[in-house]
Write a structure and sequence with these properties.
Layout (H helix, E strand, L loop, with lengths): L1 H22 L3 E9 L3 E8 L9 E5 L9 E4 L9 E6 L3 H9 L17 E6 L11 E7 L4 H17 L7 E8 L6 H16 L6 E7 L4 H9 L16 E2 L4 H11 L4 E7 L2 H13 L9 E7 L2
Parallel strand pairs: 7-8, 7-11, 8-9, 9-10, 11-12
Antiparallel strand pairs: 1-2, 2-5, 3-4, 3-6
């Protein structure tokens, strides 16, 4: 038995030593942004830190717990001079981080008073391959939208810098959310991209659909009353929020018709049930002919 145990134990100890070494490297919190509904954004800098879109890191805050490491998806783009995460306050550890950063106080917090942070990573995900396709479908469910914040920011930076050499030509973005609280911080990013794309006369580059899956009769009535307004009453975007869940079969067939003979990347960050649905649709809507349309499914789960 010991022959089978020694190898894995040695690898485990090596991984713990590497994590300990990384945790000693200095990380500086440059900015803390408080978003609506108790979501905070931590912008940080670390010497030698390099990232790709959609990657994630492990974070430890000794002021909250000396042993706990928690994974967070990076929401910044590689082109930015910092890296950032968004933290939703939903438990004891995140509440402790919220208080340690002084977000529970009204006065301005000095930088030297911010807590020390240890960072391990970044670690790769399927979202890194998004620039390998000309057409992509990005599907985020709830907080699973965070990897696509990094993707969309990076796409915009690359588009502004050199649009002609950017292989990616079309993005179909879907966000499924149970309640309106989760829309707040991400809607600002979409609103900025929407405005900038229109200014460059390329509004068709990004097509997005936001689905509110949990809603009641009062919300539906309010939606009907304000449907004719220029901007959506929930997100402030020109694209109206949709209620219910998307008909994935129709979505896949429509995209297949618009991009014949293409390899289309399907990227999901969400629950396993949705992954099964998208995987089946990717297979059933891909043609047997090598020259036909093919959907390539990629996923990551929280």
């Amino acid at each position: 038995t010991w022959k089978w145990v020694v190898g894995p134990m040695f690898l485990y100890l090596c991984e713990r030593l590497v994590r300990f070494w990384r945790s000693q490297q200095k990380v500086v919190i440059t900015k803390v942004v408080i978003h609506p509904f108790k979501t905070i954004e931590l912008q940080m800098m670390k010497k030698g830190f390099k990232m790709e879109v959609g990657q994630y890191i492990f974070v430890k805050c000794p002021a909250v717990s000396k042993l706990e490491w928690h994974p967070f998806t990076l929401t910044s783009a590689p082109e930015e001079d910092y890296f950032s995460i968004h933290v939703r306050i939903v438990g004891d550890w995140t509440e402790g981080l919220f208080n340690a950063c002084g977000c529970d106080k009204q006065e301005f917090q000095e930088a030297w008073k911010l807590p020390k942070i240890a960072v391990d990573g970044p670690f790769g995900t399927a979202s890194e391959d998004v620039f390998s396709y000309e057409t992509v479908m990005l599907v985020g469910a709830g907080i699973g939208v965070t990897p696509f914040a990094s993707v969309l920011k990076s796409v915009w930076y690359k588009y502004c810098h050199d649009a002609t050499n950017l292989k990616l030509k079309k993005i179909y973005f879907y966000w499924l959310c149970r309640d309106t609280h989760a829309f707040e911080w991400f809607a600002d990013l979409l609103q900025s991209l929407e405005t900038q794309m229109q200014e460059r006369n390329n509004a068709e580059f990004l097509s997005y659909n936001i689905y509110l899956t949990g809603w009641d009769e009062t919300q539906a009535t309010h939606f009907v009353m304000h449907h004719e307004e220029e901007k959506d009453v929930i997100t402030g975007l020109k694209q109206k929020t949709l209620y219910g869940r998307p008909n994935w079969e129709n979505e896949f067939k429509t995209i297949a018709r618009q991009h014949p003979g293409s390899r289309i990347g399907v990227f999901l960050c969400g629950p396993e049930g949705l992954a099964d649905t998208l995987n089946k649709q990717s297979i059933s809507n891909s043609e047997a002919d090598p020259r036909g349309v093919h959907f390539i499914f990629n996923k990551e789960n929280f």
